[in-house]
Design a protein that fits this description.
Length: about 90
């Protein structure tokens, strides 16, 4: 299991378009990917689950990746979230 913490810097947080981009990015990863906010976990492969967390700009979230090459994918996902734009 690989874990990371990141502060969301995208202006709109992880709502609508950025959330859809995130789901597209993780959906082909063969393992499990979860986002954690305030102790609530969400499956990052589900746009409904991601949006249910209500992640806004400046929110610190956790990333949990379990599966093949999990450390490498966790780093890629962290970079992806860092570089999200509206």
């Amino acid at each position: 299991m690989a874990e990371r913490k990141i502060v969301v810097t995208n202006e709109t947080g992880l709502h609508a378009r950025p959330a859809a981009s995130l789901v597209q990015f993780v959906k082909n990863y063969p393992g499990d990917v979860k986002l954690v906010k305030d102790g609530k976990e969400a499956n990052a492969k589900s746009i409904f689950n991601v949006m249910s967390l209500g992640i806004s700009k400046g929110t610190e979230i956790g990333i949990i990746v379990e599966g093949e090459d999990e450390e490498e994918f966790a780093d890629k996902l962290t970079d992806f979230i860092d570089n999200l734009s509206e």
